[in-house]
């Protein structure tokens, strides 16, 4: 019995420390296996992920143009180009956008926020990219060159747009008139001609089809001229005007008229000049039928019909339909007469007035009336004279209906109704409606008896 008891005790105590050690080694082995398995699973998952990514790139392709995208969201955003969908509307003006980021930038137009400032002229911009392009105007740097014609550009986007000119590719075709365009934005602008939409409106009521046209127009009211010449300091409202001005400093006139030998700075100037020889006048006024050789001449002429006078004098408020008219008027305030006749010593405000005066000394009267034979030194004087034969009085007073042959006669007459007396005596407080009356009055002070 004792033997059996001992044996049972021996079986009950089989070196516990050794068993524990063996169990620990088994556990370590098991952990190592688990870790290895985990690593293999991670590698497999990574490979599967890469494989899925590769498949995704292949799967997310545009059915219309074949372009591929990394994920479905980017493909969906791209598809809006084809569908025209614009799911992000502006709550203030109703304009819609295909991307939320584009809407965010647009909202800055309403808030007026322009956080990006030019440290050279103080002009501010709503986008950093616009500021970067603007800074190149100050430096004059144009780092992007067309390899086909050598023309330089400020930005790569401007160069890319220009390159389409050389390719002759015009994929955007108007369904109404068949005209084709190289860029989508030009196509959309063109469509507004058919629809009559002018959604860019100035505070003065004038509307435009393009935001850029509105911005340029508003500079008439603000007087802003952000483009300055580094050589003489003269400022311009448009970059194109500055570019032309810089050519005048260079003195380079590369374009020559083969009929009269005259040279021009721009090819467009030469082209317009050639119409003088051909008598071509392609720009026709839709109100009166009068035609012009240049588009800007037509634009100035149309202000006669519309009554638009965008150039205002800051000193007296008088308005003019041409910038040149305002420039001459400002000289009246300053009293400056820099152009002198070398034959009689008379002073004039502008060179054009001096040139007209010089005809008096030459006795040249090339403009002859075909009805009575009377001759005139100036064409406008002949035209006014011809109205005496035709009886045309096309300048009518809107207050009393009285008509006149000349615009200046009507203007003088209207002062009866308005009470305006713009000619003030420099010796007393008396004022007059006509300059002739003022001159006669001032002789009372000076004692002059001419």
Give the overall silhouette.
elongated
Give the distance, in angstroms, between the N- and C-terminal Cα atoms. Answer: 169 Å
| Rg value | 40 Å
Structural class: mainly alpha
Could you tell me the mean pLDDT? 79
Strand order of the largest sheet: 1-2
Largest sheet: 2 strands, antiparallel
CATH architecture of the largest domain: 2-Layer Sandwich
Instruction: Give the total of domains.
Output: 3
Q: What is the level 1 CATH name of the largest domain?
A: Alpha Beta
- The CATH topology assignment of the largest domain is Double Stranded RNA Binding Domain
What is the quaternary state of this protein?
A: single chain
Say which CATH homologous superfamily of the largest domain is assigned: Classic Zinc Finger
Number of strands: 26
